[in-house]
Amino acid sequence: MLDYDKEAERYDAARGGEPRAEAAARAVLSLVPRGARSLLDVACGTGIVTRRLAAAPGAPRVTGVDLAPAMARRAAARLPGAVVLADGRRLPFRDGGFDAVTSVWLLHLAEGAGDVRAIVGECARVLRPGGVYVTTVDKGASHNVGSDIDAVLAARPPSTAHDAVALVEAHARAHGLVPAGEARFTGHGQGRSPRRTVADLRRGWFVTLPPGEPGAEHFATRLEALPDQDRSRPDPVFTLRAFVKS
């Protein structure tokens, strides 16, 4: 697992910057009901998407939450007075306090089904009846674009996708959340190149290939043999699912 306090400084530049943030915010807002007055962005990271949610015409009042102090500090610089340092599994807000809750690029980071269940449960708890929860699903699969890089990585040890749509939907239903829509957006600037993938591999991006182990270096060697080391392959396309609280 990456250390997101250490990642904070380079996070935006390494993940598509403003073009990706704009695409993500537009897709999220397409699923948030018009007239929503308050929105909680759980795992807001550096606030690069959260700021756009707050700046949209007719936008709700937006609050951001993140567990990593360095991430939360960057978000607070973008949204002064609107960012809280907190754990998505134990949100410090009252029941039914928000018209909408989002968690973009969060559930895939959960260490197990229990954490996903806790996060979804907390998002449901702080959501008012009739409110909407929006979250990304199947993030890992989104990065598989059928490239030569994906062909190499296909042989790596499998990991459990805790944000698989069927699992997320099951947790949502258990907390009174009913499927209410879907949107997709392009992860601009996140298309992998072989050289960048090797760098990510060696800094712990792939959880089943710990840096420094022989298995990781085996895949690094295979990636280094691919042509066009600095050419980015196609960008991923991420999926959002919306759920309404019954």
Strand order of the largest sheet: 3-2-1-4-5-7-6
**What is the CATH superfamily classification?**
Vaccinia Virus protein VP39
Integer average pLDDT: 93
Strand fraction = 15-25%
What Rg, in angstroms, do the CA atoms define?
Answer: 18 Å
In quaternary terms, these chains amount to single chain
- Going by helix content, strand content and strand pairing, the class is alpha/beta
* Main beta sheet: 7 strands, mixed
What is the CATH topology assignment? Rossmann fold
- Helix count, per DSSP? 11
Specify the CATH class. Answer: Alpha Beta
Helix content: 25-40%
Shape: globular
Q: How many individual domains?
A: 1
Secondary structure tally: strands: 7
SSE string, helices as H and strands as E: HHHEHEHEEHEHHHEHHE
Low-confidence stretches: none
Query: What is the CATH architecture descriptor?
Result: 3-Layer(aba) Sandwich
Q: State the distance separating the first and last CA atoms.
A: 35 Å
List its salient traits.
246 residues; alpha/beta; Rossmann fold; seven-stranded mixed sheet; 11 helices; 37% helix
Structure commentary:
By secondary structure, the protein is α/β, with parallel strands linked by helices. The protein is built from 11 helices and 7 strands. Helix content is 37%, strand content 20%. A 7-stranded mixed β-sheet has the order 3-2-1-4-5-7-6, with helices on both faces. α6 (113-125) crosses α9. The model has no long low-confidence stretch (mean pLDDT 93).
In brief:
The chain has 246 residues and is α/β, with parallel strands linked by helices.
